[in-house]
Amino acid sequence: MKENILIIDDDKDIREMLVNYFSKEGYIMQAACNGEDGLEIVKSKPISLILLDVMMPKMDGYTMLIKLREFSSIPVILLTAKDQQIDKIKGFIDGCDDYIVKPFDFTELSLRVMAILRRSNVNHAVKNHILNVKDIEINTLEHTVKKDNLEIVLTPKEYEILYTLASNKGRVYSTKMLYEMLWKDTFMENDNTVTMHVKNLRNKLGDNIKKGKYIKTIWGVGYKIENDI
User: Which of 69, 86, 147, 199 is least crowded, fewest Cβ atoms below 10 Å from its Cβ?
Assistant: First the structure.
């Protein structure tokens, strides 16, 4: 599966160069010219990594990074002309995964991207065939789900939704993202297919939409399973 990279930079030339370069490297590219537009893309598409400029209008990179970390753990590489130690420290405190100073070498940036994606994929990979979410056990080989050692019968799509969220804890998936990933079709805004499947899944798990013991609703954004459960 090709990785989906989002470049956010107000410099059109840099955006186009990065899109062209990484497209040739085999990545799927998305682009935005400011932090506000970038956040909207993150909420609507399955992004694997973000290349984020610091100095931008409307919403700068630092601000966007802080807002992003409220609902997502997508890896972020900051792109900036600032080379001061204090700027790098601020970036890492705000939640970036790497920091590269402009003008940068495309080969070096590409290697950093590959390294971070490799680490990210390892972190998200299931080390064995069992995924646990509190007292829920997901067997990824047999495609079975148990709660307190009692099997819960799920439909294929209910299982896929649960597996997607459980294997990417902390990451928020919008209904649009889930629909297009799992149903392989274009999402229509008035389509409640995903919502109904999540509702049925919650009922079978004994989950409560208000408390969100297993699946948490991020209102206006989507669904996630917390990192710490």
Answer: 86
